[in-house]
């Protein structure tokens, strides 16, 4: 078996998925007696984004990754089988252009790819030098020839040629949704599994009595918008300016009229909810909402103590986790007030130990 990153082993996939499901089941055995619902990934070309170091050896340049155990030795990446077909197509064409054009190659350090299921693509080239109009003059025709958005970055510089985003179309909950994904904002890496995750969350929400939804960590609205069809009103919070800008665009293009985005962190919202103070939280008519459910998709650290106390006040907690260990800790902290009623595994990263999970907690009594 090759040690090169990004390889696929379809014949091993089902055994790996079964092991991940069993691990999740065992972790939550104190709170859950069933088998997790399992959502598999495609076995190849499932990652919509990737980043590579650009390595120069004499007159030759190649894309590289590194083994954490040997971080000084580049591993050449002639292709990236876990990456989308569009990423693999662009890798070859971009290297051809870099070799042919010294202005593109000179002190090029890194290349980042963001693609969609429909083949839309954004490439960011990162340099250890200042970029100018001469770089634009050779990069702009390249972008047109490859049909991509292209961005050049260097220290304190960001040169956007035509656009800084891709538009993804996902089929979720029986409808197609359009999501603008802006460079350097968080996006789900595995689009097909993302469709499963959001559809699963919507299916759980459809089982709840209709009310209002509070969402923390809403990002660009990938969960927010489809979930909004199952609630009267939605208040969603997000700290990133770029993600809030994308979310507002996505609300408009998808014709959603019952979602308000609040730019604040989950921690600030939790503190404001508890104290009734804070300029940002006073901008929203919290007493006017009739919250029945809270939806959270936190970072790997899970919910902090204040946010755990906040979500405890809701009838239902709908939780997507990129780290089942912190999800388990949060579930344990909520056990005195909430019961775990649903558990799901989402395999965003095949051929790795990484697991993502979904959970529903219902207030006891």
From TrEMBL:
The keyword DNA-binding is annotated on this UniProt entry: no
Coiled coil: none
One annotated GO molecular function: tRNA (uracil(54)-C5)-methyltransferase activity, S-adenosyl methionine-dependent
Active site as annotated: 322, 356
EC number: 2.1.1.35
PROSITE patterns (alphabetical): SAM_MT_RNA_M5U (PS51687), TRMA_1 (PS01230)
Gene Ontology cellular component terms for the protein in this record: cytosol
SUPFAM superfamilies from the UniProt entry: S-adenosyl-L-methionine-dependent methyltransferases
Enzyme superclass (EC): transferase
Catalytic reactions on record: uridine(341) in tmRNA + S-adenosyl-L-methionine = 5-methyluridine(341) in tmRNA + S-adenosyl-L-homocysteine + H(+); uridine(54) in tRNA + S-adenosyl-L-methionine = 5-methyluridine(54) in tRNA + S-adenosyl-L-homocysteine + H(+)
Pfam families the record matches: tRNA_U5-meth_tr
Organism domain of life: Bacteria
GO biological process: tRNA methylation
Positions bound to S-adenosyl-L-methionine: 188, 217, 238, 297
Listed InterPro entries: MeTrfase_TrmA_AS (IPR030390), SAM-dependent_MTases_sf (IPR029063), TrmA_MeTrfase (IPR011869), U5_MeTrfase_fam (IPR010280)
Keywords of this entry: Methyltransferase, S-adenosyl-L-methionine, Transferase, tRNA processing
Functional note: Dual-specificity methyltransferase that catalyzes the formation of 5-methyluridine at position 54 (m5U54) in all tRNAs, and that of position 341 (m5U341) in tmRNA (transfer-mRNA).
Family: Belongs to the class I-like SAM-binding methyltransferase superfamily. RNA M5U methyltransferase family. TrmA subfamily.
Annotated NCBIfam families: trmA_only
Protein name as annotated: tRNA/tmRNA (uracil-C(5))-methyltransferase
UniProt organism field: Natronospirillum operosum
High-level lineage: Bacteria, Pseudomonadati, Pseudomonadota, Gammaproteobacteria, Oceanospirillales
Gene: trmA
């Amino acid at each position: 078996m090759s040690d090169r990153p990004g390889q696929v082993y379809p014949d091993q996939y089902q055994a790996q998925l079964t092991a991940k499901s069993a691990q999740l089941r065992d972790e939550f055995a104190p709170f859950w007696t069933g088998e997790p619902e399992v959502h598999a990934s495609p076995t190849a070309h499932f990652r919509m984004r990737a980043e590579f170091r650009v390595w120069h050896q004499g007159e030759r340049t190649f894309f590289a990754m590194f083994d954490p155990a040997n971080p000084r030795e580049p591993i050449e990446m002639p292709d990236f089988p876990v990456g989308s077909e569009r990423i693999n197509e662009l890798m070859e064409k971009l290297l051809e252009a870099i070799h042919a054009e010294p202005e593109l190659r000179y002190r090029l350090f890194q290349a980042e790819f963001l693609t969609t299921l429909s083949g839309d693509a954004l490439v960011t080239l990162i340099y250890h030098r200042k970029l100018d109009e001469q770089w634009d003059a050779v990069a702009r025709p390249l972008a047109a020839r490859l049909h991509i958005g292209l961005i050049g970055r260097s220290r304190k510089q960001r040169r956007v040629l035509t656009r800084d985003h891709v538009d993804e179309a996902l089929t979720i909950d029986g409808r197609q949704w359009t999501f603008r994904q802006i460079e350097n904002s968080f996006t789900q890496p595995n689009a097909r599994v993302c469709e499963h995750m959001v559809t699963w969350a919507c299916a759980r929400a459809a089982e709840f009595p209709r009310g209002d939804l509070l969402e923390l960590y809403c990002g660009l609205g990938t969960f927010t918008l489809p979930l909004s069809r199952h609630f009267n009103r939605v208040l969603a919070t997000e700290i990133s300016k770029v993600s809030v800008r994308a979310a507002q665009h996505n609300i408009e293009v998808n014709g959603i009229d019952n979602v308000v985005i609040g730019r604040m962190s989950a921690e600030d919202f939790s503190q404001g909810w508890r104290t009734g103070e804070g300029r940002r939280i006073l901008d929203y008519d919290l007493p006017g909402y009739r919250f029945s459910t809270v939806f959270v998709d936190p970072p790997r650290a899970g919910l902090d103590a204040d946010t755990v106390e906040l979500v405890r006040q809701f009838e239902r907690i709908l939780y997507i986790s990129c780290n089942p260990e912190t999800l388990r800790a949060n579930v344990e902290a909520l056990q005195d007030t909430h019961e775990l009623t649903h558990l799901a595994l989402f395999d965003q990263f095949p051929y790795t130990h990484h697991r993502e999970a979904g959970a529903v907690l219902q207030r006891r009594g």
